[in-house]
Amino acid sequence: MPVLIWLFLFAGGILLAQSPEQVVRDSVESFCKLEFNGAQDPSLRAKQVRFSDSRLAEMKKMMANISPYVFEWQSSPLDVIESFEVIGADVSGATAHADVDYVVIAQREAWGAPIKSRPKTLVHSRLRLTQVGTRWIIIDPPYPRVSRTFLSASYRGQFQLPDTWYQQASRAQLLWLRNAIDNILLLDSADTDQRSR
Predict the structure, then answer these.
(1) What is the pTM assigned to this prediction?
(2) From its phi and psi, is residue 150 left (phi > 0), alpha (psi between -120 and 50) or beta?
(3) N or C of the chain: less Cβ packing under 10 Å?
(4) Domains of the chain: which residue ranges?
(5) What is the pLDDT of residues 49-89, one digit of tens each?
(6) 20-188: what fold?
């Protein structure tokens, strides 16, 4: 018989049971919200995801010595999303799957590449999870999927530069600035973000 996790909550004196599927959905919802809002703390990501050996090897080729648990908004491969929705989950013992729909509006396809707009696209992902103790861990998640608002604000935050910076900037630094401005213009032309529906 599959191992089931039941969370018992007291509400108004009534004992309520939360199904294993709901626990998985809540775990995935929490993960998606953290990414949507641009959480960059690697310790948070490390608590929620694990990578297979083959995925780690693939990421190491792309990201050299940077930990796969680190999300660097300036350069990590990512999808820019308008919204996400966790639409279902199923549990079988210590293994689970959750279905998530993302509305993708732009992306950075490779480490350090520019962000490129794309037609608004509904992307369906089926996430695989495994139970570790009382927690559900996502195995080999897609690249981070973050909101336009977070990225635009992050780029804008870099412009708190002293006047002398512009006079002393190298060609590479000026190119970086130009790319940041291009990214802001691209992101600001996207539709207004929405939270999970």
Answers:
(1) 0.74
(2) alpha
(3) N
(4) 20-188
(5) 888 888 887 777 766 666 666 677 777 788 999 999 999 99
(6) Nuclear Transport Factor 2; Chain: A, (3.10.450)
Instruction: Find tokens 């002293």 and name the residue.
Output: 162
Give the type of residue at 104.
Answer: V
